[in-house]
Amino acid sequence: MGTIAISGASGDLGRRTTEVLLDRLDPRDLTLVTRHPENRVDATRRGIRVVHGDYRNPDSLDQAYAGIDALMLISGHAVAKRIPEHRNAIAAAKKAGVRHIVYTSVAGIHPRNPTISAGDHIVTERDLQDSGLGYSILRNQTYSELFTPMAQSALESGTWLQLGNQGLVAPVSKDDIAACAATCLLEPDRHSRVIYEITGPELLSFRDIADMFSRLYNVPIGYKVITLEQMYAAFDSWGIPRAFDEHSSHAAKAYGSDEIVSAYVAFEQGYHAILSHHVEFVTGRKPVALGEIIARAKALDFDRAAGHN
Predict the structure, then answer these.
(1) Nearest to 102, CA basis, from 223, 46, 21, 201
(2) pLDDT for residue 246
(3) Nearest Cα residue to 31 out of 76, 21, 56
(4) Rounded to whole angstroms, how far apart are CA atoms 302 and 296?
(5) At what angle do helices 251-268 and 228-237 cross, to 10 degrees?
(6) Position 308 pLDDT exceeds 50
(7) Which sequence spans correspond to the domains of the chain?
(8) What is the value of pTM for the model shown?
(9) How far apart are CA 30 and CA 104, in angstroms?
């Protein structure tokens, strides 16, 4: 099995993958690589090695990846600036003798996908394929957990605003992605030099998703098709800047409306209309449906509001 590292380990996906790995891995065989080791003191207390590593600092990666057999390369956040960061990580992994990389790519990989960040992933996938290393590329569909914050304005206003009426998506839970990543890290020979489409169990239209929120929250929600200009205006009214801001802790504000709107264009053009069985193929379990993730988030919000946590 060897030693395993998660690079980008302070984020939510890194934390979830850590927990899955610890069910089958001695903490001493796991390394967490992060720009902010102070944010993973919890892991250090559990006997996990936590080290500094920054995709923009190749020397830090050389040290962080030393002695590692399999690496989870969680993509960076700097939209349209990630290619050199990921290349630094791949080069450092080769130099350190890493045998296998699990990379968090994105659904809808296609040279004509209009999503701004798609180009980053396309190039990194090719770099991995040319690296000579073993790899598992996880083309992760939109996180199911993102839809509840996305739906807040619709729940408040009673109207779901959408760019078009044709887009389809199969949202996948972060826990299912984490389970796939952990399995590929633990069984690299079985999952070597493969690309998986990591999707949820249902291909849904955005009208379906609006109706789902309406039923689960018992709130009437209409569905309104808007123009590109109107969608930008909506994001402007919500205080979302156009450009990427790496210093923002707010997810939508960090990515910026240019990235988000370009993704909505890609949805409408069919680039994300992908449904696969790969979660079950990799993990042996069926993926969690979007409705269950929404219901969990709703229950959690109720518990917090009622002071039950």
Answers:
(1) 21
(2) 65
(3) 21
(4) 10
(5) 160
(6) no
(7) 4-143+171-200+274-288
(8) 0.94
(9) 18
Q: Count each helix (H run) and each strand (E run) in the chain, helices first.
A: 12, 11
Gap between the Cα atoms of 159 and 267, Å rounded: 19
Judge contact between 294 and 214, C-beta under 8 A: no
Residue 6 phi/psi, 5-degree rounding, is -115, 120
CB 19, CB 181: distance < 8 Å: no
Tokens of 115: 């999503």
- Torsion sign across C-alpha atoms 238, 251, 123, 110: negative
SS3 197: strand
134-140 and 100-106 beta bridge pairing: parallel
Distance CA 264, CA 286 (A): 27
Rounded CA-CA distance 124/137 in Å is: 10
CATH number for the domain formed by residue range(s) 4-143+171-200+274-288: 3.40.50.720
* CA of residue 286 relative to chain centroid, distance: 19
Classify 242 as helix, strand or coil.
coil
Q: Give the model confidence (pLDDT) of 150-209 as tens digits.
A: 999 999 999 999 999 999 999 999 999 999 999 999 999 999 999 999 999 999 999 999
Give me the amino acid identity at 202. Answer: E
For residue 60, give both structure tokens.
Answer: 């830090």
Of 150, 155, 297, nearest to 235 (Cα)? 150
